[in-house]
Every structure is written in structure tokens, then in C-alpha cells.
From TrEMBL:
The lineage of its organism: Eukaryota, Metazoa, Chordata, Craniata, Vertebrata. Signal peptide: none annotated. This is Intraflagellar transport protein 81 homolog. Its main location: cytoplasm. One of its GO terms (molecular function) is tubulin binding. Gene3D superfamilies: Intraflagellar transport protein 81, N-terminal domain. GO terms for cellular component: ciliary basal body; intraciliary transport particle B.
Length: 663
């Protein structure tokens, strides 16, 4: 419950409500204020609900809220009972708080639902009124408008989700307008240039005729291309028909009349089954699905909570169906069991028949698709200069040709194998030569060691390589030194130019520094004094805020203590409800009175806190004045006593309005 209240307070403090509530102020709202808050939330969903509930009767307010909540498909925890209706009329917290929590959770969705309900909730017209032709025609137009609104709304949602934004469209429009202006200016410039030419009207007429003829030429070329495409498609259809005719003639030449009749009878049986049984059943199922989809499309959009409720209902219904089937199977007698066996066998045969028919239909469709693809491929091959589809003797000649090619392929493969063997021999020769080279190098190294010049050949090669690298580095160093000297000269010249240009500016800068140094010190002193004053004010304000927060924390703790006491009282009331029926009325009255006393005490404490906050400063001033008065009176008393003690015996002390004799 506390989480629910926190969520409601957070949402009401945000845009667009800005109620500035906390848990204490929201919980202490009067029923009329709570109903007004609920009405403000409903007005945010439907602007027509923006009404001050003090200006209408409570029955009208409750009826209006009931209607809107029903349209928004709100379902209270206990259903639309009489307790819920009475609680909404009197502004009961256990009824209003769940409604606010449900509304504030899904405001965008409910806005859309309320907007659609204005146009999609159909008017209920009695059947006897629809007998009138004018009313019936008007109602028919109304239904057509509702259907048109559905289609337009769907298109609008599709456009919103398609990714097109108004900013992009506006930018495109601005760009097109700019292009239009540029074209208009260009046309005007061209007109001015053309007007200077003699006989320009005749030339413009000829240019117009030329443009018309070019457009006509383009249209004729387009028509020619379309006719070529149509001719090509017709030729393809003719080739396919010729191929089918030739295939049918060949098939008919090989078959007998009995086989042809048998095949035709099978086709007739299959087609009659499809027409009389399968297709009508599929058509009826499709009509049911379309009707169901139309019904679903005509209803308003459902939220996630409603979808979950429907899924729960579907699961419950399925479980009930399963229980009923089990009960029926348990109640079946032996005769019904025998009949059910035959029924099951008949159903199995029907299903097998349907599956076989579907398989046959799929096979025929696949055969037709393959034949179409074969005809298309053959026609494409003929167009590209390829060979036709071979049959009979041509196929035999093709097989003999392929055999000759296979023998040639075997010979070539044998030659490739011989070349591979020769390649292996060459690889081995290369390895032997590398080994001999390595052995020669080793022998050369041994001879160099015997002569005392080991590493001579390697050193000579290394020296040659190092000398080549050194010559390259020397060339690079020479180029680098020249470049660096040129760069140093350029930098020195640039630095001298910059110094000569900056010297007058530096002199001016020194004068300005001396001129503005005094102003800077003055401004800095002013800033320091202002900062010190603000810092002292800030510390005072922080201290006051700290004290007020401590007082607020104390009052909140007191409120929570009283709230806990109230909850304890409520639990005691619930415990007392389980007692005997004789004392229940007295106990309930006692606890209600105690709760009322606690509530009244809470209100008194709130008023006292408010009075303390309001009268704190006057009371403090008054207390200070009383203390000053007390100090003054005490001082007068001491003076008086001192005067009495110092007076001689028999001396008369005169005071205001009386004389005293000291004995």
C-alpha cells in the first residue's frame, strides 16, 4: 500500500499535474479533494472530463466516472459491486487509490483508447427505429464513416512507425521551394535572353513542337518495347505449348486407350473430390477465419493486461474441456466404445485420404513447376544459341560422344599423373643440389679455417653490404643537412617578422596593464566584501533550514507513530470482529470512536504544529518582553528593599499614593 501511495504522489507531482503533494498531505485529503484529483487524472486522459465536481451533483459525477472507466476497461479488484459504486460516490480511499494507481501507470495508452472510443463506440439504435428508411440510411452512413476512420487511423499509425518525420518533410519542402525559385529565376533570365533575339516567337513554337515530338518518340519507343516484350512472352508461351503438345503426342503414341481412360477416370475422381469435399471445407474454414479477423479488427486495441486475462481464460477453458472429455470417456458404455472404435477408424481413414490428396496435389504442383522451369530453361537455351532438349536417338549419340570424351579425359589424367611424377623427381633433384651447396660451403669454411682466414667469405659479403648501406646513409645525411639549414633560415626570418610586428602591441599592452591595475584591485575588493556577505547569509539560511528540517523530522516521526497506533487499532478492530456476535456492535463502535479520537487528535496536532510555526516569532518576541519586564520588576524590588534597609528609624518614606513610617 505504501509503494502504491509513493507511486501516486510521484506521478501527481510531475508534469502535467504539478500537485506538490507528499505522503502526509495526500493521505489527509478530504473525500471531495480526492475525487477532484481523480477527476483531474481523467481529464488528462479525456479533456471533456475537465470539470469542477463542486458544480455538479454527486450522482452525475459518479455516472460520468463510471462511464469513462468502463470505456477504458478498468476492472476493480472485487468487480463492479455495489460497495465499489458507493465508495466511488463518497470518495473512499480504498476505492480511489487503486483507480489512480491504474490510471497513472498507463496514461499514453489510455489517451489513445479514449480518443478511439470517441469514434469507434457505436451508438445503440433500437431495431424498431431502424425500420425507418431515413434512419437506416443515416446509420449505414455512420457505419461507413466508422470504417473509414479505422482505415485512416491504421494508415496514420503505419506512417508514424515508417520512420518519416515532419522535420525531414519540411526540410524537403523548403529545399524544393528553393529549387523552384532558382528555376523560376533561370527561366526569367532565359526569357530575357531570348526576347533580344529576332523572331523569337517562331523559335519558341518550333522548340515546343520539337519537345512534343521527342515526348511522342519516347512514348512510341516505350510502346515498341512493351510490344516486343509481349511478342517475346507470346513466343515463349507458343514454344511451351508446342513442347507440351509434342510430349503429349509421344505419350499418346506409346499408351493404349484403356490406360488413357483409366488415367482420365482417376483425374475425374480426384477433381470431383476436390470440388465437392476438400475445397468447400477449406472455403468455409477460410470464411470463418476472415469473419473472426474482421471481428477482432473492429474491436478497439487491447492492452497487455487484457491480453493476459484472455490467455488465462483460454487456459481455464481448455482445462475444463479436458475434464469434460475425461468425464465423458469414464461414462461411456461398451456399445459406445465399439462404435467409437469404428468412428476412430473412419476418422483415421478420412485423415489418411486427406493427407494423400494433399500429397498428390503437392506432387502435381511440383511436377507442373518442374515442367515450367524445364520449358523456360530450354527456351532460354535456344535463345542463347544452345542445344535443344535431346530425346531418343539424339540422346544415344550424345552418350557415345560422352564416352569418347571420357576416354580422352582418362588419357589426359594419365599425362597429368606422369607430369606429377616428373615434378617430384625435380623437387628431389633440387634438394640434392641444395645439400651439395651446403656441403661446398662447409668445405670452404674448413679450408678458410686451415689457412687462418675463417669467415673471410662471410666478412667480405658483410663488408660489401655495409658499404652499400653507408653510401646510402651519407647521401641521406647530406640531403637532411641541406634541408635543416634552409628550414633554420626560414624560421629565423619568420621570428624576426613576428617580433617586429608584436613590438608595438607589447608596448600598448604594458600601458593598458598599468591603467587597469587600480580598477582591478577595486573590483576585487568589492567582490570579496560581497562574497563574504553572501557567505554569512548562506550560513544563517542553512542553520534555519537545518532547524526546520529537524522540526519536520520530529513531526513526521510523531505522525508515523500516530499512524502506527491507528494501524494497531485497526488490527485490534479486525481481531474484535472474530469475537462473539453479542459484543461485535459495541466493540466496533468503541474502536471507531477511538479511531475517530486518534484522527481528531492527529488533526489537532497538525493544527498545533501549524499554529506553532505561525506564532513562533511573535511568541518569542513576547517571551523576551516578559523576561525584560520581569528583570525590570526585580530591579525595582531590589532598589525598594535597599531603600528600606538604609532608611533611619522614625523616618517617613513617601511613596506614590502612601506614606510609611520606619520604626
Amino acid at each position: 500500500m505504501s509503494e502504491q501511495l509513493k507511486f501516486i504522489v510521484e506521478q501527481l507531482n510531475r508534469e502535467p499535474f504539478k500537485k506538490n503533494f507528499n505522503l502526509i498531505t495526500f493521505d489527509s485529503l478530504e473525500p471531495m479533494q480526492l475525487l477532484q484529483t481523480l477527476n483531474d487524472a481523467l481529464a488528462e486522459i479525456d479533456p471533456k472530463q475537465a470539470i469542477d465536481i463542486r458544480e455538479e451533483m454527486p450522482e452525475q459525477t459518479a455516472k460520468r466516472m463510471f462511464t469513462l472507466l468502463g470505456m477504458l476497461k478498468y476492472k476493480p479488484p472485487g468487480g463492479m459491486s455495489e460497495v465499489f459504486r458507493q465508495g466511488l460516490v463518497i470518495g473512499s480511499k480504498p476505492v480511489v487509490h487503486p483507480i489512480l494507481h491504474w490510471l497513472l501507470q498507463r496514461i499514453p495508452e489510455l489517451k489513445k483508447r479514449a480518443y478511439l472510443a470517441r469514434f469507434l463506440v457505436k451508438l445503440e439504435v433500437p431495431a424498431e427505429f431502424l425500420q425507418d428508411d431515413v434512419i437506416a440510411e443515416t446509420f449505414h452512413q455512420y457505419e461507413e464513416l466508422v470504417g473509414g476512420f479505422k482505415n485512416i487511423h491504421k494508415e496514420c499509425e503505419q506512417l508514424k512507425s515508417s520512420g518519416f518525420s515532419t522535420a525531414e518533410i519540411r526540410r524537403d519542402i523548403v529545399a524544393m521551394e528553393e529549387e523552384k525559385d532558382q528555376l523560376i529565376k533561370r527561366v526569367e533570365r532565359l526569357k530575357k535572353r531570348v526576347e533580344a533575339v529576332s523572331n523569337h516567337q517562331r523559335m519558341l513554337e518550333l522548340a515546343r513542337q520539337l519537345r512534343v515530338e521527342k515526348e511522342r518518340e519516347e512514348s512510341l519507343a516505350h510502346q515498341k518495347q512493351e510490344q516486343k516484350n509481349q511478342l517475346f512472352q507470346a513466343e515463349q508461351r507458343l514454344q511451351r505449348c508446342q513442347i507440351q503438345l509434342r510430349d503429349l503426342q509421344q505419350a499418346a503414341a506409346d499408351e493404349k486407350p484403356e490406360s488413357l481412360m483409366k488415367r482420365l477416370e482417376e483425374d475425374i475422381k480426384f477433381n470431383s473430390y476436390m470440388v465437392s469435399e476438400k475445397l468447400p471445407r477449406e472455403l468455409e474454414n477460410t470464411r470463418k477465419v476472415v469473419k473472426y479477423l474482421q471481428k477482432v479488427a473492429s474491436e478497439p486495441a487491447l492492452g497487455q493486461a487484457e491480453l493476459r486475462e484472455l490467455e488465462d481464460k483460454i487456459r481455464e477453458t481448455n482445462t475444463e474441456i479436458n475434464h469434460l472429455i475425461e468425464k465423458k470417456m469414464m461414462r461411456n458404455d461398451p456399445m459406445d466404445d465399439k462404435l467409437s472404435l469404428f468412428r476412430q477408424q473412419a476418422a483415421i481413414i478420412v485423415r489418411k485420404k486427406e493427407t494423400k490428396v494433399e500429397e498428390l496435389q503437392e506432387a502435381r504442383e511440383e511436377l507442373a513447376a518442374v515442367e515450367r522451369e524445364l520449358n523456360m530453361k530450354s527456351s532460354q537455351a535456344q535463345e542463347r544459341g544452345g542445344a535443344k532438349l535431346i530425346r531418343g536417338d539424339e540422346f544415344k549419340r550424345y552418350v557415345a560422344k560422352m564416352r569418347g570424351k571420357s576416354s580422352t579425359y582418362k588419357k589426359k589424367r594419365q599425362e597429368i599423373a606422369e607430369l606429377k611424377v616428373e615434378y617430384g623427381v625435380l623437387q628431389r633433384t633440387e634438394e640434392i643440389l641444395r645439400e651439395r651447396h651446403t656441403a661446398g660451403q662447409q668445405q670452404l669454411e674448413s679450408l678458410e679455417a686451415q689457412r687462418g682466414i675463417s669467415g673471410y667469405s662471410d666478412t667480405q659479403e658483410e663488408l660489401e653490404r655495409v658499404s652499400a648501406i653507408k653510401s646510402e646513409l651519407d647521401e641521406m645525411k647530406g640531403r637532411t643537412l641541406d634541408d635543416m639549414s634552409e628550414m633554420v633560415k626560414k624560421l629565423n626570418s619568420v621570428i624576426a617578422e613576428k617580433k617586429s610586428a608584436l613590438s608595438p602591441l607589447i608596448k600598448d599592452l604594458r600601458a593598458l596593464r598599468q591603467e587597469h591595475a587600480v580598477k582591478f584591485e577595486q573590483k576585487k575588493a568589492q567582490y570579496d566584501t560581497c562574497a563574504a556577505g553572501l557567505e554569512s547569509n548562506r550560513s544563517k539560511l542553512e542553520q534555519e533550514v537545518r532547524m526546520l528540517r529537524e522540526e519536520t523530522a520530529q513531526e513526521e516521526s510523531r505522525y508515523h507513530h500516530i499512524n502506527c497506533m491507528r494501524e494497531i487499532t485497526e488490527s485490534q478492530m479486525e481481531r474484535a470482529a472474530d469475537q462473539t456476535l453479542e459484543h461485535i456492535a459495541l466493540d466496533v463502535f468503541f474502536y471507531k470512536a477511538e479511531e475517530h479520537c486518534v484522527t481528531v487528535g492527529l488533526q489537532v496536532l497538525r493544527q498545533q504544529v501549524k499554529q506553532v510555526r505561525e506564532n513562533q516569532e511573535p511568541n518569542m518576541r513576547q517571551m523576551k518582553m516578559w523576561k525584560d519586564l520581569e528583570t525590570l520588576l526585580e530591579c525595582k524590588k531590589q532598589c525598594y528593599l535597599k531603600a528600606q534597609s538604609q532608611a533611619p528609624i522614625g523616618h517617613i518614606i513617601q511613596d506614590v499614593g502612601k506614606d510609611m513610617l520606619v520604626l
